[in-house]
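Dear colleague,

Following up on Tuesday's group meeting, I ran the structure prediction for the two-component complex that the binding team flagged. I've pasted the input sequences exactly as they went in, so you can double-check that nothing got truncated or mislabelled along the way. The structure tokens for the whole assembly follow below. Feel free to forward this to whoever is handling the docking comparison.

Inputs:
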Amino acid sequence: MSNSPFLRLWAWPLLMALLSASGLISALVSDALGDAWSWFGLGLPVLVMAYFGLRRSASNRVADL
Amino acid sequence: MLSQKSLKTWSWLHKWSSLVSTVFMLLLCLTGLPLIFHHEIGHLLGTEIEAAEMPADTPRASLDQVLASARALYPERMVQFASKDEDDDRLWFVTLTHTPEPTDDFRSIAVDARTGAVVGQPPTDEGFMYVMFRLHVDLFAGLPGKLFLGLMGLLLLLAIVSGVVLYAPFMRKLVFGEVRREKSPRIKWLDLHNLLGIVTLVWAFVVGGTGMINTWADLMIKYWQYDQLNTLLAQYKDQPVVAEAQRGSLQTSLEAAQAHAPGMKLSFIAFPGTSFSSPHHNTFFLRGNEPLTSRLLQPVLVDAQSAAVTASPKLPWYLTALLVSQPLHFGDYGGMPMKIIWALLDIATIIVLGSGLYLWLKRRQPRTLTEEAGVVAA
């Protein structure tokens, strides 16, 4: 990603926040398409948490060898 | 950038807003989890009332007959509210009480909208879901319990904001999502706390904020009666609640209300003297058909004696805000996938709360957490 220290720290959190907010609103104002976007917008942050939260760190993988 | 001093201030704010509210937030997250699926659970337990299958064009019974059937079960009680099932307009639900005032002592009777016969009485004050509901809404303590939980909600919002501010100094040396598992368990849980906290931020803030707004519902409705209905209904000032014997036909009143707002569907009816109406009116709350307008209500006040429409005031902004905040709290507006995501985000929040408590308990052994974590203040 970018070299800017601000973006290095905040790009991911901002992306997660925008996705969640758009998901919360879309299902409120539109039925079929809005619902589908809300599953994506709120579901992706859940997947991101699961991926980073459950993956084993690089050093552990090295230690296993 | 945070100076050393403001880092201390924000840490203090995060610590205390969290510590005071954590136990209650854990309770709300745990009791809220089954409440997300209350329809499905009611279905499984068989406590959900179902209407019998009949041809779709079966004529509807008169509303007066529907109410008479319900009241025949409890002749000593009066009707406070009557509502159409949100998903199934073949059912009416009639609320019977001893008083027009808000009360916990009520009976809910399901009546078939076509035959006008009683279908059943869903239990309203017992069972697992009832206990979950009361613990979640008011801790079995009525309005004071609600307002107390609302205050805890406010502390949660403070904890979230201060947590976001603290995210920067704690994460400056790390990349997003980095969890230092090889260090102490304390550091691992700190990194998980920061990861889950920052990702659930917007959802937790919205669900916490709308939950807090919901705790003020009773007060907002009281204010609406005082603020709008009193001026609107000045001509009825000082008249007592219209006696039951003097009331006109409710079916005629319903038709008058629907003719006044064509194309809208009935949500519920508040009877004279109850908290959503005036002493002299049956108030019909109608909702629209679009995704957003189906959440909003249009009250139509119908004179209880003459069955003629008196007024149809627009709902004030604070009640509109309350109605829009409800789906955002319940997560019931995007089908089953949304409910499942809501539950997963709720579980993530439980982990954030639990890890936060753990980090506080382990705050000084042997170094302080900020030292060990490599916090960069400025």
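The radius of gyration of chain B is 25 Å.

Cheers,
M.
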